[in-house]
Structures are given as C-alpha cells and as structure tokens.
Amino acid sequence: MQIAERCVASFHYTLTDDAGTVIDSSEGREPLAYLHGAGNIVPGLEKAMTGRSAGDQFKVTVAPEEGYGLRNEQLIQSVPREAFQGVDNIEPGMRFQAQTQNGPINVEVKEVAEATVTIDGNHPLAGQALHFDVTIADVREASDEEMSHGHVHGVGGAH
Ligand code: ZN
C-alpha cells in the first residue's frame, strides 16, 4: 500500500540540522504515526512521504518555508518582568506558554534585564533546514473516525 490521502503511515526518523547534529529521533520509541494529508507533520516531509510504502528508506531536506517557517523578528519582544509573576528565577532558555490575541504560543526567554524580559515566540526550528532520514514502518487505511478527527488513533497517535 502506498502513502496517499486517507492513509495512516508510521515511520522512524532521525532529524538533523545543517551541521549534522541530531535534533530529534524516534530511535528507541514507537514509530511516529500520522494521518497523511491532514497537516500533522511539516509540509515538506508530508510531500516527500507521498507514494512511499512500508520498508522504504529515504532522506529528504526540507527548506524552512516547508518546515517550521522562517524566523519572524516581530515575534521577539520585550515584556515587563511583572508578566512573569510567580516565577522565581527567570533565565534565558526557559520556555513558557504566552497568551496572545492569536491564541497561546510557546515562547523562549532570550534575555533577562532588571525590568524587562526578552522573549522569542519563533518555533525553535524556524529558519532552519531540516534533514530527515526516514524509514516507513507501516501504511494502512485511515478509519472514518480518524478522518473526522484529523489525526491518528491507537499506537503512536492522539488520545
Ligand atoms: Zn481523535
């Protein structure tokens, strides 16, 4: 069976950056399952999956535009320290969920000054090329329930 719309595919992957450093990997875990065509994975990887079958192994480089997007400097902001009430030690590298007009976003603390904290709302992988090494583990037909939910149920899936 080939990966197409209405398919659930599961795969093992290793994700590396331009320098060859491993960012993420499914090694030692269940393969990642996703509903093809539902935007569960980054667009560039989803495209590269089309037509593959169980056992296929391939490498693909995904440009930022088809990965986690380009970096947006407007998402780097200075906020008053009072915004972090209840947090004793604010340190660069800490991650928080911030409420915005467009819903919650994950932000990373970049800099801590006396009165302000600089936060970055970009995805950690924004602006980066993603190098995937993929092995397809399984391809099956999606259930009606999975189609209506837009994600995978069962092993490696949601719920
Ligand atoms: Zn569901």
- Gyration radius over CA: 19 Å
Overall residue-averaged pLDDT value: 93
Roughly how many Å apart are the termini? Answer: 26 Å
Provide the list of bound ligands, each named once: zinc ion
Tally of helical runs? 2
Low-confidence stretches: none
Give me the CATH architecture of the largest domain, please: Roll
CATH-assigned fold name of the largest domain? Chitinase A, domain 3
Q: Tell me, what is the CATH class of the largest domain?
A: Alpha Beta
Characterize the biggest β-sheet.
5 strands, antiparallel
Q: What is the total number of structural domains?
A: 2
Structural class based on helices, strands and sheet pairing: mainly beta
Task: Using brief descriptors, characterize the structure shown.
single chain, 159 residues, mainly beta, Chitinase A, domain 3, Thrombin, subunit H, 4-stranded antiparallel beta sheet, binds zinc ion
Give an overview in words.
Strand 1 (7-16) and strand 2 (22-25) form a beta hairpin. The strands form two sheets. Strands 1, 2, 3, 4 and 9 form a five-stranded antiparallel beta sheet that branches. The protein has a four-stranded antiparallel beta sheet with strand order 5-8-7-6, with no helix packed on it. By secondary structure, the chain is mainly β. It has helices at 43-49, 144-149, and strands at residues 7-16, 22-25, 32-35, 57-62, 76-80, 95-100, 103-112, 116-120, 130-141. It folds into two domains: 7-68 and 126-149, Chitinase A, domain 3, CATH 3.10.50.40; 73-120, Beta Barrel (Thrombin, subunit H). Residues 149, 151, 153, 158-159 line the site of zinc ion (ZN). Zinc ion is lined by residues 149, 151, 153, 158-159.
